[in-house]
Amino acid sequence: MAKRNRGKALKKLPAKGRGTCPICHRKRIKLLYERRTEHNDSLNVCKYCRDK
Ligand SMILES: [Zn+2]
């Protein structure tokens, strides 16, 4: 698979892939990783939260 979390691909994302992480509440961090919640929703989280 392509490196979809790097380089030019980020510029196509809303806010260039940045925002506030819903888990750790870091601001303007890159939210590049999708996580499934127990309700089967997908959340975009930062790299620090992807394995929690
Ligand atoms: Zn986070």
Structural summary, described in words:
There is one protein chain. The mean pLDDT is 88. It is globular and about 30 Å long. The relative contact order is 0.22. It is built from no helices and four strands. The chain has a two-stranded antiparallel ribbon. It is mostly beta strands. Residues 21, 23-24, 26, 45-46, 48-49 line the site of zinc ion. Zinc ion (ZN) is lined by residues 21, 23-24, 26, 45-46, 48-49.
Ions, cofactors and other ligands present here are: zinc ion
How many domains comprise the coordinates?
A: 1
Look at the helices and sheets and give the structural class: mainly beta
**SSE ordering:** EEEE
Quaternary form: single chain
Number of strands: 4
Number of helices: 0
Principal-axes geometry comes out as globular
The biggest beta sheet is recorded as:
2 strands, antiparallel
Low-confidence sequence ranges: none
**Strand order of the biggest β-sheet:** 1-2
Q: What distance lies between the first and last C-alpha atoms, to the nearest angstrom?
A: 24 Å
Report the helical percentage. under 10%
Gyration radius from CA atoms, angstroms: 11 Å
What number is the mean pLDDT?
88
